[in-house]
UniProtKB/TrEMBL annotation:
<dbReference type="InterPro" id="IPR017871">
    <property type="entry name" value="ABC_transporter-like_CS"/>
</dbReference>
<keyword id="KW-0813">Transport</keyword>
<feature type="domain" description="ABC transporter">
    <location>
        <begin position="5"/>
        <end position="234"/>
    </location>
</feature>
<dbReference type="InterPro" id="IPR027417">
    <property type="entry name" value="P-loop_NTPase"/>
</dbReference>
<dbReference type="InterPro" id="IPR003439">
    <property type="entry name" value="ABC_transporter-like_ATP-bd"/>
</dbReference>
<keyword id="KW-0547">Nucleotide-binding</keyword>
<dbReference type="InterPro" id="IPR003593">
    <property type="entry name" value="AAA+_ATPase"/>
</dbReference>
<dbReference type="Pfam" id="PF00005">
    <property type="entry name" value="ABC_tran"/>
</dbReference>
<dbReference type="InterPro" id="IPR050763">
    <property type="entry name" value="ABC_transporter_ATP-binding"/>
</dbReference>
<keyword id="KW-0067">ATP-binding</keyword>
<protein>
    <submittedName>
        <fullName>Multidrug ABC transporter ATP-binding protein</fullName>
    </submittedName>
</protein>
<dbReference type="GO" id="GO:0016887">
    <property type="term" value="F:ATP hydrolysis activity"/>
</dbReference>
<dbReference type="GO" id="GO:0005524">
    <property type="term" value="F:ATP binding"/>
</dbReference>
Length: 309
């Protein structure tokens, strides 16, 4: 698949010497949804701002749709829409004028039908004549999204778009994302709601301290790194594990009333059959069994901790 955003050896050093990006290289495929995950201060917003041309890189290169975002910045930026974290709107302007002006700033001709479609998608049509200062926080967030979509971008950056918003907006946002993806729009998402990334992303990129730790297909990553846990509830609690059943990946929990066994889902043998046989031979009676699998959030936290170690 063709890369619509190509980032090569991108570095950003601020006055005072802080290095926010440390040679980031990243190719974002046309039409995909990429979840960019990382802890606070990892460099997510700096990377997005640099790709969008808001921040000037210290070194390295970014191209969008084949256009260099420095030497051909108008063409590159015309392909990009950005929904920022912070809400910044002209308080005395109407919703309609706000969105129309943004479209004009990108050099796009008037298209009332398209803007009406965007506003209706975001449940803003009945607010089109309201001044932005009169809107709730959730409605203002919807206006930011409408502004980002006003010029029909081919690449859309969503920087924590659902942080602190209501459930209805979050649902509407992901419905719109699904429609945009169906239209071939490339979407780069940062979010603290990792379950959202798990639900909609095609690939996952993890960034920490200005460096990309990995970029991988979400499903492949979860198959490669996910673990399952077998929870075994006991008829009677144990104070210690008998030597015959002790294993590195088996532990007592809840004051000895349950066992948790961790195993690799990709292995040829899980070891569960042997474990259950050992428990039976040791005279340990079982009450119930259940399994859980690692989520993308578990994997993300594990990656960040591993890198920090």
């Amino acid at each position: 698949m063709t890369a619509i955003v190509d980032v090569t050896d991108l570095r950003k050093v601020y006055d005072g010497g802080f290095e926010a990006l440390k040679g980031v290289t990243l190719q974002i495929r046309e039409g995909e949804i990429l979840a960019l995950l990382g802890p606070n201060g990892a460099g997510k917003t700096t990377l997005i701002s640099t790709i969008c041309g808001i921040t000037r890189a210290t070194s390295g290169r970014v191209s969008v749709g084949g256009y260099d975002n420095v030497t051909e910045f108008r063409k590159a930026r015309s392909l990009i829409g950005l929904v920022p974290q912070e809400i910044a709107l002209e308080p005395f302007e109407t919703v309609w004028n706000t969105v129309s002006l943004t479209r004009g700033l990108y050099g796009r001709g008037r298209d009332d039908a398209y803007l009406e479609k965007v506003l209706r998608q975001l449940s803003l049509w009945d607010k089109k004549d309201a001044r932005t200062m009169e809107l709730s926080g959730g409605m203002k967030r919807r206006v930011l999204i409408a502004k980002a979509l006003s010029h029909a971008p081919r690449v859309l950056f969503l920087d924590e778009p659902t942080a602190g918003v209501d459930v209805d907006l979050r649902r509407d946002m992901w419905n719109i994302v699904a429609d945009l993806k169906a239209d071939g729009v490339t979407i780069i998402l940062t979010t603290h709601y990792i379950e959202e990334a798990e639900a909609i992303a095609d690939r996952v990129a993890v960034i920490r301290k200005g460096e990309i730790l990995l970029v991988e297909e979400k499903d492949t990553l979860m198959r490669r790194m996910a673990q399952k846990e077998l929870r075994i509830e006991l008829q009677a609690p144990l104070s210690t594990l008998p030597e015959s059943v002790a294993r590195d990946n088996l532990r007592l929990v809840e004051d000895g009333s349950a066992l948790v066994y961790t195993y690799d889902t990709t292995g040829e043998r899980t070891g569960i059959t042997r474990l259950l046989a050992s428990l039976s031979e040791a005279g340990i009676a079982l009450k119930d069994l259940s399994t859980t699998q690692s989520s993308l959030e578990d994997i993300f936290v594990g990656l960040v901790k591993e890198d920090a170690a």
